[in-house]
Amino acid sequence: MENEAFLQEAKRQIQHQHALDNAKELIDKINKNCFEKCITNPGASFSNTEQNCATLCMEKYSNAWTAVSFAFVNRIQRDRSYGAIKITEA
């Protein structure tokens, strides 16, 4: 039982770290892509045009990321149900 509890906790921690890594990657990509696209003249503040562009860019990027992640999870679940992916426990 202790070994199973340890494995479950390790699995939970790995999943948590994976989620953090994904969030960091999303933020990094949004910063890089949206900043480069929208902020044409960096300064002490952003113009309204730059703010609007950055907001729309971030929303689009975030929505696309969510759609791709959702499709990926659905694909894995479907493949598991058909037996195409076998999950083994150590």
Describe what you observe in this structure.
The chain is mainly alpha-helical. Helix content is 79%, strand content 0%. The protein is built from two helices and no strands. The protein has helices at 2-38, 48-81. α1 (2-38) runs antiparallel to α2. It starts with a helix and ends in a 9-residue tail after the last helix. 0% of the residues are buried.
Short description:
This protein has 90 residues and is mostly helical. It is built from two helices and no strands.
Break the fold down into its secondary structure elements and pairings.
Blueprint: H1 2-38, H2 48-81
Helix pairs in contact: 1-2
Q: What is the average of the pLDDT values?
A: 85
Write the element-wise H/E pattern from the N-terminal end onward.
HH
Helix content: over 70%
Amount of beta strand: under 5%
Main sheet characteristics:
none
What is the overall shape?
elongated
End-to-end Cα distance, whole Å, is: 14 Å
Assembly form of the protein:
single chain
Rg value: 20 Å
Number of strands: 0
Query: What structural class results from the helix and strand content?
Result: mainly alpha
Give the low-confidence spans. none
How many H/I helices?
2
Task: Give the tags.
90 residues
